[in-house]
Amino acid sequence: MVKTLSKRLDKIFQSSTPKTKLVSYFVGCYPNPETSFNLIKQAIDNGVSVLEIGYCTSEASAEGPIIKKAHDHVLRNNYTLKDTIELVKKIRDYNSEVGIVLMGYIANLYKYPIPNFVNDIKNTGADAVLVVDAPHELKEENILRECLNKNELSLIKLVTPTTDDRRIKDIIKISSGFLYQVTVTGTTGQKSADENAVKNFIDKIKNISNIPVCTGFGIKTPEDAKKMANTGPSGVIVGSAFVKYIQDNLEDKKLPQNLGKYVKSFVKEL
What we know:
By secondary structure, this protein is an alpha/beta fold. It has helices at about 5-15, 35-45, 65-75, 80-95, 105-110, 115-125, 140-150, 165-175, 195-210, 220-230, 240-250, 255-265; strands spanning about 20-25, 50-55, 100-105, 130, 155-160, 180, 215, 235-240. The chain has a single domain (about 5-265), classed as Aldolase class I (TIM Barrel, Alpha-Beta Barrel), CATH 3.20.20. The radius of gyration is 17 Å and the shape is globular. The chain starts with 6 loop residues before the first helix and ends with a helix.
């Protein structure tokens, strides 16, 4: 059995309602810290179970053009990882139940450095970290994992359609919280996933472990979310669709409320 270090994530995925959780990705401090907070509040109020808060980098290699554009905006405005951590603190003060995952790239953590980063996010009430570009063989990821374990925080790992069976087992051994199943190859927000392939992959993981599996990449509409939910994951991850909605409606004075309605349209399909 996989140990889920974050008790909050454990509770979320053990709950029978909703059957499939909505995991939403937002770029931290986009378009600015205050608006970002108001947007995320509405997402929570409209049914998001777990938040992935992206901290920004100029080397966002896994991101498609939508999320990359948001990263570039944040960096141009000089919002930093520390600003994103402050945002997480405000989110946790607002809501004690939602899961919070800090998601980004290893380069940011080199500079922080890693032990200080883990200590700071622990104090904000975050639950987990997902580092997109750090394979488990990397020395720095081992340091990160040890620091997270000491602080009872989870390390979320990715598996992709090209991950072989042996590597899947190795990744599951060091994962906690949930496993992020990338449904398609390439960058975020670009392709749609094949339902049968996703279901077969989830079934394969379930035969190895009882770790919750959340499936993401290529989920652009509520209908896409419903199709992916029917493949049997514990959660469905939506990122680019929400970031694009924000980008397309930046001048809308009721953007947070309208984003909330948009989020709810996904939740209703799960």
